[in-house]
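Internal tracking record. Fields below are filled automatically when a chain is submitted to the structure queue. Please do not edit lines marked as system-generated. If the sequence contains nonstandard residues, flag them in the REMARKS field before resubmitting.
Queue: standard
Priority: normal
Entity type: single polypeptide chain
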Amino acid sequence: MPSVPLAAYSQPHQFEPLLPQMQLGGLIEGTRAVVEKAYRLQHAVAPSTRRALQDLVRGMNSYYSNRIEGQGTHPANIERALSADFSVTPSVAQRQRIALAHIEAERELEAILPDSGVESIALQSSFLVSAHAALYRRLQAGDRTTQDGRVIEPGALRTQDVSVGRHQPPTATSVPAFLAKMDEVYPRLKGLDSVLFYIAAAHHRAAWVHPFGDGNGRACRLQTHCAMLALTAGLWSVNRGLARQRDKYYELLDSADAPRQGDLDGRGSLSEKALGQWCEYFVELADDQVTFMGKLLGLERLKDSIATLMLVRSESSQYSNYSRQATLALHHVLLGGPTPRGEFMTMTGLSERTASRVLAQLVKDKLLVSDGPKSPVAFNFPLDALNILLPNLYPEAAAINNEV
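SYSTEM-GENERATED OUTPUT FOLLOWS
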């Protein structure tokens, strides 16, 4: 808590402008580049492979959002939590529960979005409240109790005035008015040219209002994920970029809190220049993430990665029943989607007995998944293969897990 009282905010005009108005050309140009790459990426792989990637990215979203808050747990522990396997260490188990709650909340929120107009729905303040509620109602009271002993109620706006570092958010009684002001602007988004800076500005101003007693960052990132879903299709993660630049993320959020700096800095109470810089950062970060994933999912690169994985494992004493001759069959499943087991075995060119052992091993190691023992197999991205299949996407998954 600051030692000197800060100026109180109680009138919605005090956090204007809600959008940057100057030098929009660069933001629009950057957004167009992201949109083009995003839509191209959505058609890069088969629908079943896309679903596997979406599940992977959902876990990443949880991991990175919680890491930003200093409550991350090893990706392997998140995977264990998905199977209801929780650590005997209370602090680790708590972080697992928080990670699992984030994944389940994200699924719930995505399910209520319409097929079109995702951004406008997700940018409503009611959706932000729903995001907070979806996350916190999945946590037992002990997991949503703050360090000072307050139990945070799911989706409840704060009832106390607070200070956050150098920033004092609006008075608790005025929070609904600030949220209503946001609803006059952000859900009115139309067209793709402005989609990213609308989402970026909404992310900042929601964090600035600090509507909840705790969990504001997580709720804002859930809202941002859903607002961007039409672009990302769940195939790439802004949270990954924010977490990898955590200090810069917080620095630019803090800078955009600044008051107006003279007559050339817009007409609102807050700095339009600083808000614009935050939006520029967000657009550049989105471009970096979609570009990176686009390169990883390049068809030739994926084919080479599968070949490398099969070569490494077929020659390693750690693995059994791997064969380089399964490379083509795996690549076919990646591109073509679910494949009958017999067809997969035939494509390996191996004897029936050997091909059967290879197929069984790939299913056991989750490189292939299916709905049943005789169902077609689909491609998957298990954590222990990511360092070869999708290098540097989720390097924490390959790190030694020292949490028990």
